[in-house]
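hey team, just a heads up i'm posting the complex here instead of the shared drive bc the drive is being weird again. everything in one block, sequence lines first with there labels, then the predicted structure for the whole assembly after. its two chains so it's a bit long, scroll down
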Amino acid sequence: MTALGLYIHIPWCPTRCIYCDFNTYIEANQSLKERYHVALLKEIRETGIATGHPPLNTIFLGGGTPTTLNPNQMLEIIDTVAESFTLHAEAEITTESNPATLSLDYLRAIRRGGINRLSMGVQSFRQEELSLLSRLHDVPTVHHAVEWARQAEFDNLSLDLIFNLPYQTLSQWEYNLQQAINLNPDHLSIYSLILEAGTPMQRQVTQGQLPQPDDDVSADMYEATMTMLAESGFEQYEISNWAKRDIGNASFQPASVRRTEVSTPKLASAHNLIYWRNQSYLGLGAGAFGTYNQVRRANLKRPHDYIKRIETGTGLGMAQDEKTVEAIDRPTAMMEHIMLGLRLTKEGVSATEFETRFEVNLADHYQTAIDYGRSNGLLEWIEAGDDQRLRLTPSGYLLANRVIVQFIE
Amino acid sequence: MNQEKIRNFCIIAHIDHGKSTLADRLLQSTGTISEREMQAQVLDSMDLEREKGVTIKASAVRMGYTAQNGETYQFNLIDTPGHVDFTYEVSRAIAACEGAILVVDATQGIEAQTLANLYLALDYNLEIIAVVNKVDLQSAQPDDVAQEIEDLIGLDAIDVLPVSAKTGIGVETLLEAVVERVPPPQGNLDEPFRALIFDSHYDAYKGVIAYVRVMDGQLGKQDMVHLFATERTVEPLEIGVFRPMMKSTDSLQAGEVGYIATGLKTIRDVRVGDTVALDNNKDAIESLAGYEPVKPMVYAGFYPTEAEDYKLLKDALEKLQLNDASLIYEPETSQALGFGFRVGFLGLFHMEIIQERLEREYDLDLLATAPSVEYQILKTDGEKIIIDNPADMPEPTYIDTISEPWMHLSVYTPADYIGGVMEISTRRRGEMIKMEYLDETRVLIEFNLPLSEMIIDYYDNLKSITKGYASMDYKFGDYRASDLVKLEVLVNKEPVDALSVIVHREQSYPRGQKLVSRLKKVIPRQMFVVPIQAAVGKKVISRANIKAYRKDVTAKCYGGDISRKKKLLQNQAKAKKRMKMLGKVEVPQEAFMTVLRLSEE
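-- predicted structure starts here --
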């Protein structure tokens, strides 16, 4: 049985960061926020009915900043999901958060209400960098927030960091990373800065107001990250994700990868694993994406449009943006399976699963692409019991796109 | 027609000085064509040209003009090609005339090329009627320009006619001047038929149309004719005159201008400058002086940027060649650029025109290699070879001497820019022959300059250094032995054929460095370090490394990103398919384009 995840989008932010291109809005209008909340609850209920209340392994509240919701709203959402779906007893329930929005009381309230994983957008431990990124929080706030999260009994805490910022040097990045390690998180998501088109930061770089981050420096920082985290007891399981090393298994992991050297760590994000394993997920809220029954659909992006559609509609995809509906045929699914699966640096892509799912032999079908990757030292086959798994080598992590492009027909 | 009533003349003018406006005005004033017909005709011929590769040139128009003396005259206005590479064609048009209207813009004065053509006309003893055009403009200085004409060619300034082709001012006076001042033809009607071919075009139905000026005798429509240069004998499908569309007639007589529809299918069978005679007494006829076979001076490889456009390029070249006897080409293959053609041109401007027509009219995206000239090589074994492609150059040890064409170049510039003109010319190995002040502010400088140096960027440099005021004219001088070498560019140790050039040894260093640094910018990183080298023979003269690829990864990819990130990767895969392989190195087609286009700068 494959896992099913639920993504819920909370589009509100206290401020907008200059590098961000997500579907977010400043939370100015309380009545719009209230109407959005009501609409979201309706979409959860309607979707539950339309899909027949299926078993749910994960819930992920993303944004935006979900912690701009008050605890009652957040718990109402979780309760409504629990009523509308068959929520697994050990379901992973994550919320993203901005440290500046957190307090001990708040964290206690949402933890009691069922949130069991906290992902915190820290980004940097250097004040000048936080200011450059126009983040709302300062460095002491991060330390407080982490302390409160532990006091509130969050035993699965993840921190987000960004490297290769304008002006940032390798040693400054190493300082940031060391600060994060010192806070002893269970999980780290670490991204090289992407200058997304249309963001103020991208514009400033184009216009020369900010220096263009350098790819070679980025590669140096990435390699330093891999080394430092390995030495600090973290296991890398995805190109940009690390989890505390443990002896257990991640939730809902296919039997074939249990207790082998290709095991994804237990504290890996179960929800995100659903994406990378090319499994099904539903997306609710403004602009949210879901891939369910071989169809990918996204909701209307603007909260106002979304609310209006929900207020009058019923059923699955009631607020979908018709322009973004995409039927995932088999060749597309195969390509996505590889594109996503190769991101998983430990488990990679299982030849057995691939053949079962697509009725195509992975090694034969992609012989040229696999030869290219292996002869350049970027791909490897790994034995896992009866199975063979194809995955990137560590030197392939930084060149993943070069490898994946070979698989595109 | 009594020759006394015939006036054959051409118009000599610089681009933009109003030649075609004046020609249009003459056609209208003589009632040859109405304004509405004029526009309709222009449009028609463009459409026709697009569809069938046919040009209807109004380049030898017959007009009837009733003068103030009450007599009606036959005017034949012969067009002259408008740019420097067609000097030979201009000389043949001039040889078909007794008079020339010199048109000078009243706001700008005489330009170099006008002067060159004017001297040509004087060599042929043409009667010159000087006209200052655009006198209706505020900035016109007709008196100054008239004085300039007097100083330059000794025409009396008071004989210079003020005209505005646009408004019609002075046009009537000009027509009268043609009657009074241009001498009538002096052909002998009793001699055997003999005519000069001064132009041609291809007609889909009537074959190659020869534009002729009858020198002596008379041609009937049933007569078989003989073309001397190509030794072809044909029975014309039709003879006639341009009014301005082709209108058949029963005969063409001494002094007249008209056409012979030969029915021949290849434009090269009808050579400009050739003599036409009756087939039955061709042996008794002496051919007219001045014929020269067309000879390309500049060569370049033309490649479609998309390989699948090869066939389109081939078709387009075929169509252009129908009407351009001076255009020659043959298929060529480049390791870097794929399948294309080696094309020969009369000069750099001719090359530009052809390239522009291929791109605009045939919607082709082209890649042109650096233009080359014809080198004469004397090998150590005594064999003489001629090459126009660096790829054909023998190893240095087999070369005794290499000679290259030198041109005689005239630059006409405001005196303020003398220093700049000298600098860009001597930098290109130019040797100054003389400098002459035409008046207080304008100077004529003559150089000997290697053609290979002139075709790279000389004209653009000249224009930019003189803020657009200079003009130039050139003609072939001689072949001279020079210290020339083949400069090769190697990517990952393999030579890139499309980037090889033959250069003077002294310039191999700067050219090599330039090519290397440009390639370094446009070749993307590979999985391994890629050395880029410029070399002369085995000696590397410039070198740079492209660092190995280190990072090409999508930082994050979650549920909402999948479709977008997938599209980016698909685009990357598509771009990869368009890459050209240079050995193991993937190079985007655009890289060659950038380097080749930049090298023109």
